[in-house]
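Structural biology now treats backbone shape like a language. To illustrate, our science desk offers a sequence and the tokens encoding its fold:
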Amino acid sequence: MSGPSGPRSGGVWIRDRYPLIAGEELTPLVRLAMAADLASPQTNSSERGLPFINADYTAYLGREPQGEFVGIQPYGHISERGVGVGQAVVHDERGPVGFIATAAVVNR
């Protein structure tokens, strides 16, 4: 996996069933933050598998998320010499909400 890539295939819709804190309802923003961790394997994998482990991710939102479902749509990946970065578009049931930027390192 090297060089920039454009829109990538795949993606997932997520709905967490368990609370982050016992007895507390999940808000749409908390649901998005929990789902954002899946952006790394979505953006940094290839037909050869997932050679990277998640080092960090940041969510950039253009609006408040709504609802229980969060979609992670992989968009791009760049890597060289053991470091990778990825980008995914994050959705709710109304449409795009923002972006997830990921940083990853090779796990040989």
Notes: Strands lie at 12-14, 52-61, 70-80, 83-92, 95-106. The domain at 12-106 is CATH 3.10.129.10 (Thiol Ester Dehydrase; Chain A). The chain has a mean pLDDT of 84. The chain has one domain: 12-106.
